[in-house]
Design goal:
The complex is a heterodimer of chains A (397) and B (348).
Chain A: H1 6-16, H2 18-33, H3 39-43, H4 48-69, E1 92-93, E2 104-105, H5 116-152, H6 154-169, H7 172-179, H8 182-187, H9 189-197, H10 199-213, H11 217-239, H12 259-287, H13 291-299, H14 303-314, H15 316-339, H16 351-359, H17 370-396
Antiparallel strand pairs in A: 1-2
Helix pairs in contact in A: 2-4, 4-5, 4-17, 5-6, 5-10, 5-12, 5-15, 6-12, 9-12, 10-11, 10-14, 12-15, 13-14, 15-16, 15-17, 16-17
Chain B: H1 2-27, H2 30-40, H3 47-56, H4 63-71, E1 78-80, E2 86-88, E3 113-114, E4 119-120, H5 121-156, H6 161-174, H7 178-190, H8 212-242, H9 245-252, H10 257-269, H11 271-294, H12 300-309, H13 313-341
Antiparallel strand pairs in B: 1-2, 3-4
Helix pairs in contact in B: 1-13, 2-3, 5-6, 5-8, 5-11, 6-8, 7-8, 7-11, 8-10, 8-11, 9-10, 11-12, 11-13, 12-13
Classes of the chains: A mainly alpha (397), B mainly alpha (348).
Chain lengths: 397, 348
């Protein structure tokens, strides 16, 4: 078979991504139709920039989903090597395609004869899984610590702010090099950090339920047991891994997280949370002077009720915008980790690692490094545009 | 003001102590020491050999003591090793127990010895930092003026076509991390297969003689990422100033638009970006590590990677001291400069 022309390559890639296009069209049609009922999300469809951003972000979300959960998008196994495909240019036909095997390497082969297209698509699954979740955890840590620091001020604020500045004064890459190495993993450090960092969602949920329902103890107790029970189980499963430093809960362990993945996750949360803390603290200091806070204080509401049910909802605008920006930043951090070969196992198709492998032969074979570069660039750009659109629309009212 | 600076220096010193202790702790964890021993000795050492290697060189004592020795507040160790040789922290190549100094730490001006480069840490840091300073200097020359111009152009007529396109460009550059833009630039401008071949894809030769051909791409790569952020801040600040009362007054009395921007708006609009530019330094440090790796320029960032990759404890400590000082000093300068530029704010 002959090699494909560039037009044919793009045509075939378009066809290969068909489930993504269909999902995107469905999403946009429904959202446009009901945009007046969808709150801030619906208003996004009034701004061109916001819509472009959302389209790019959702493209990668759907791609990550379909590539990870189904076999519709990926043409070849991203980890296996195919004979005769080493460093082949985009559109090269497979020399010996078996039955039912996709006959082309759409974006060529890399230096280990793996399919670049499939690797980039598989890489999106990793990003889509880790980046939003790590950002969410960083937000929960930042909110749980930032609200009391801003609300109470004083010594608590002093100590917490000093710690946050301490982490922020570290160059990120040095911190990664210190935290994300196989040697550190042997000491169990990432797991101990996970014990601390992953406890914050639990604390957050407990305080939130208690401050809201303390007047109705029965409802509170039922909710507490149900939510903390399930969250606690997830927590225990996350931090526990057989054969590591924490094996206390082996009997009730639901799933095992790969050690490298956990390390990456923990360090990304660790790096992000001080910035979130500072933002939340600033917002809390600003909002606590408002009249509705004074009204709640006069009513006799407890401090945590005021923080979580009066201040936090009123700080949501800037926090949502920052959430989008921060997912983008987390994506960049994950890429940086991959670029320096830290964390995830070396053959993993994450974008940073793929760029790093591709750059070694860059001047002769540019094609393995470029697709993951553009993928990462477009996702971060989409998130930035989305944040811009959200900021514009939330300022309108 | 004097008291303010003094207090800030106190906080800085305390922060630096805490951070170096954290680095010290992490690099002195046993698996890291084991890696160090195997790198220095040989990779087939048994566990007992590793332990005796580390014990002979004083690595296996308590953490605060080792940290105190590194700082120079405790006397350096002298250990008669299991192999019969006496080693000491302060021993030079041909020192004995009697001739060596008792203290040799940071306070005595001794930064230690790099196990990777087999050289004095201070001289390594000196040569590498000056190379990176050269890079940073050109980054600043490229980044700051262009970012300010873009920001002012976009902010002086908010919502115009120029504003829209410049803002989008600024967003694009902030969304492009160095390892992405660097790769794209190398392919476009330096690749021997498809590229324009205008520049070189490696900056190794720029360490001795930097010229446009071998130095432009690394400088541009770092500058571009920071530029978008500064430009956006400048734009926001400029747009805010342009809505102020005194601008309207100037406009109503018939000052030309050019003069309004140059004489009335610009000075006030440049206060906020000053802080942002100062606070960009720590971020540039990250960019430097990536770009020096990508373009093979052996400066400070390259040393950081080498030191961290090989668990070179004393070099790594020196690297973190330098980077922490850079971060804290720029914060201090930005605070003081902000007060100096904006008389409405007073330091308390």
């Amino acid at each position: 078979m002959d090699a494909l022309s560039w037009g044919a390559i793009f045509g075939r890639m378009f066809m290969q991504l068909m489930p993504v296009w269909i999902s995107l069209v469905v999403l946009f049609v429904f959202s446009m139709r009901y945009k007046r009922k969808l709150g801030l999300y619906g208003k996004l469809f009034d701004s061109m920039i916001g819509m472009i951003g959302l389209a790019i972000v959702m493209f990668w979300v759907f791609t990550g989903f379909f590539a990870g959960a189904t076999d519709m998008i990926i043409t070849h196994d991203p980890l296996s090597q195919f004979s005769g495909m080493k460093n082949k240019v985009p559109g090269t036909a497979m020399s010996s395609a078996g039955d039912g095997e996709y006959p082309f390497f759409l974006l060529g082969g890399d230096h280990l004869a793996r399919d670049v297209f499939s690797r980039v698509m598989a890489g999106s699954t990793i990003v889509i899984l880790i980046a939003p979740l790590a950002t969410l955890f960083a937000f929960l840590v930042g909110i749980t610590l930032g609200l009391p620091a801003g609300y109470y001020g004083g010594k608590l604020d002093l100590v917490l702010s000093f710690l946050a500045n301490l982490i922020l004064a570290f160059p990120v890459i040095l911190l990664f090099y210190l935290l994300v190495t196989p040697e550190i993993r042997l000491t169990g450090m990432p797991q101990y950090m996970a014990v601390v960092l992953f406890a914050f969602p639990l604390i957050f949920a407990a305080v939130m339920i208690n401050s809201r329902y303390y007047v109705a103890p029965q409802t509170r107790n039922i909710l507490m047991v149900a939510i903390l029970g399930s969250l606690g189980w997830l927590y225990v499963s996350l931090i526990n891994a057989p054969g590591s430093k924490i094996t206390l809960f082996d009997t009730i362990d639901l799933f095992d997280v790969d050690g490298g993945l956990l390390t990456v996750f923990v360090s990304v949360v660790f790096v992000n949370s001080p910035t979130v803390y500072r933002i939340v603290r600033g917002l809390a200091m600003d909002i606590k002077t408002r009249d509705y806070v004074a009204a709640a204080q006069t009513r006799g509401e407890g401090p945590w009720y005021i923080m979580l049910w009066e201040i936090l909802p009123n700080a949501r605008g800037p926090l949502i915008v920052d959430f989008c920006l921060r997912i983008g930043y987390t994506t960049i951090l994950l890429g940086t980790l991959g670029f320096f070969g830290l964390g995830l196992e070396p053959e993993s198709p994450n974008w940073g690692a793929t760029i790093n492998e591709g750059r070694k032969l860059l001047s002769v074979y540019p094609h393995p490094a470029l697709p993951p570069s553009f993928a990462l660039l477009s996702l971060v750009l989409g998130l930035n545009l989305l944040a811009d659109g959200l900021r514009e629309e939330s300022l309108k009212d | 003001m004097g008291l303010f600076i003094l207090r800030r220096f106190g906080v800085m010193l305390f922060t630096a102590l805490c951070l170096t202790f954290v680095v010290f702790f992490l690099t002195n964890l046993y698996p890291n020491l084991e890696k160090l021993a195997k790198n220095q000795g040989n990779f087939r050492m048994s566990d007992a050999e590793v332990a005796s290697y580390l014990g002979n060189r004083g690595y296996l004592r308590s953490l605060p003591v080792k940290y105190g020795e590194w700082l120079g507040v405790l006397p350096g160790y002298v250990i008669e090793g299991s192999d019969g040789k006496t080693r000491g922290k302060c021993f030079g190549p041909d020192d004995t127990k009697e001739t060596a100094d008792r203290y040799c730490g940071l306070l005595q001006g001794d930064w230690g010895f790099s196990t990777v480069f087999k050289d004095d840490v201070l001289s390594i840091i000196n040569t590498r930092l000056s190379l990176t300073a050269k890079l940073m200097f050109w980054v600043m020359i490229v980044m700051v003026p262009s970012a300010l111009i873009v920001g002012v152009m976009a902010g002086m007529r908010e919502g115009s076509k120029t504003d829209r396109s410049l803002s989008t460009a600024a967003i694009l550059t902030t969304a492009t991390p160095e390892y992405v833009s660097g790769v794209i630039f190398i392919v476009i401008f330096a690749s021997s297969a498809v590229g324009l071949k205008w520049f070189k894809g490696s900056a190794t030769s720029a360490m001795d003689s930097a010229n446009f051909e071998n130095f432009f791409l690394p400088v541009l790569t770092i500058a571009l990422y920071g530029m978008g952020y500064i430009a956006r801040m400048t734009r926001a600040s400029m747009a805010e100033v342009m809505t102020a009362q005194y601008i309207r007054t100037a406009r109503l009395k018939g000052v030309s638009f050019r003069n309004i921007v140059m004489k009335h708006a610009l000075r006030n609009a440049l206060i906020a970006p000053f802080t942002v530019i100062m606070l960009q330094f720590p971020w540039l440090l990250n960019g430097v590590v990536i770009v020096e790796t990508l373009f093979n320029y052996k400066g400070f960032g390259w040393v950081l990677v080498q030191a961290a990759g090989n668990n070179d404890i004393e070099l790594l400590l020196a690297v973190s001291v330098v980077s922490v000082v850079v971060v804290l000093v720029t914060q201090l300068i930005s605070d003081i400069g902000y007060v100096y530029l904006n008389p409405r704010i007073k330091v308390t």
